[in-house]
Amino acid sequence: MNRVYNFSAGPSMLPLPVLEKAASELVSYGDAGMSVMEMSHRSPAFEEIITSAESLLRQVMNIPDNYKVLFLQGGASTQFAAVPLNLMTTGKADYVLSGQFSTKAFKEAAKYGDVVAAASSKDDNFTHVPTVDRSSFRPDASYVHICFNNTIYGTKYPYIPDTGDIPLVADMSSCILSEPVDVSKFGLIYAGAQKNMAPAGVTVVIVREDLIGNARPETPAMLDYKLMADNGSMYNTPPCWSIYMAKLVYEWILSIGGLEEMKRRNEKKAALLYDYLDSQDYYIAPVEKSSRSMMNVTFVTGVEELDKKFPGEAKAAGLTNLKGHRSVGGMRASIYNAMPYEGVEALVAFMKDFAEKNPK
Question: How far apart are CA 23 and CA 261, in angstroms?
Answer without folding.
Answer: 26
